Amino acid sequence: MVSSDTPPPDSNASGLGCGGIVWSALAAVLLLTGLTAVAVLAVRAFGALVAALGASALIAIGLNFAQWYFLKRLKRVDRYSLFRLGHRWRAWRGKGFDIEELARRCGLTAHRLQNHQPSYHTATIPKPSGGERTLTIPDPATMDLQRTLLRRVLARLHADPAACGFERGKGIVDHAAPHVGRAVVATCDLKDFFPSVTAKSIDYYFRRVGWNAEAAALLTRLTTSEGGLPQGAPTSPRLSNLLMHGVDYALAKAAGRRGFRYTRYADDLAFSSAEDDGQAVRDLLRRVEAVVRRGGFELNSKKTRVLRRHQRQMICGLVVNDRLNLPRKIRRELRAALHRRRVGREATYTAQQLAGWAGVLTMVARGPRAFHGETPPDSAPSSA
């Protein structure tokens, strides 16, 4: 017997019925027709855009959009790998900045730039740590031209923030200050720094930032000697920082992941951590060696140092244990040298060296970003 509470069967419960099927089919046809029309219009619009702008321009627009999207949306993307994609495309297509543009920026004629033949001579200077350093110094005309390139071309490009040497508004104080009062400090040295920056890598860099093949080759010829950076040319320090951008970025990233800070002054690398974790230090140094080797450089293993709190932690001649300062021995020798000069006796410091050390003391007192990229003075002799 069927209960009176049971509802009557619904004729549409098991299907849509004829009317529902018809309306659904009609809606599907209309939707497909509309999508087809939109697709046709989109294809026609794209064809008109290609005809108006050209395929190269559209690809460049797409690359620039991809650059914006990755840099703004994907925080984990290696920004150096996506560096100036639009310029890369123009350079690869031969549409980058040409020699005429280079001449315009330098305030010179293209003929003068192309016909200039750099020449160099060598000179030796004593190293603070002993031995001699060989400099490759350009002739006066080449020196003037390289200074122009430094001001008009290289100064517009950006090095990694970790680079503190030879950068406007930075110096050894900025290099050492981030590592003050840290539990462990590790310092490394790059072997044959300037010669390791090859002409091939410089040419590739100039192409990557937007110069075409001819202009990049000319810039490389005007700034290199014997296949590398001449140590003594005014453009070499800046170019070394620009070419180290990728290495600096990778080292800063590796250090940050392990709780370390990283800065670089020329060929001196410095890392520090608030925690004295021996395993983390060893892991970081292995990673540093791999990154440096991949970038075309080599560590001088004899100069790698790991310094704890109970040791004197020094970076580029500055003590960073509790506060930034010169070593006590050098301060004592400076006072003795000043006294000798005041009483008219012969001192081991020249007036230029004394002025240099006085400048360092002033910058240490002022703190970071006060040492405006000057080369630090020679180290003090062993006795006054």
From TrEMBL:
Which PROSITE patterns would you find in this protein's record? RT_POL
State the organism of origin: Alienimonas californiensis
For this protein, the record's Pfam families field holds: RVT_1
Asked whether the keyword Transport is assigned, the reply is no
Q: Which family does it belong to?
A: Belongs to the bacterial reverse transcriptase family.
Task: Please state the Enzyme Commission number of this protein.
Answer: 2.7.7.49
Q: Which PANTHER family is this protein grouped with?
A: NUCLEAR INTRON MATURASE 1, MITOCHONDRIAL-RELATED (PTHR34047), RNA-DIRECTED DNA POLYMERASE (PTHR34047:SF7)
Uppermost EC category: transferase
Which parts of the chain span the membrane according to its record? 20-43, 50-71
Single GO molecular function: metal ion binding
Task: Tell me a GO biological process for this protein.
Answer: defense response to virus
Q: Know the name of this protein?
A: RNA-directed DNA polymerase
Q: Give start and end of each Reverse transcriptase domain.
A: 106-320
What reaction does this catalyse?
DNA(n) + a 2'-deoxyribonucleoside 5'-triphosphate = DNA(n+1) + diphosphate
Q: In its keyword annotation, does this UniProt entry include Membrane? A: yes
InterPro entries xref list: DNA/RNA_pol_sf, GrpII_Intron_Splice-Mob/Def, Reverse_transcriptase_msDNA, RT_dom
Alphabetical UniProt keywords: Antiviral defense, Magnesium, Membrane, Metal-binding, Nucleotidyltransferase, RNA-directed DNA polymerase, Transferase, Transmembrane, Transmembrane helix
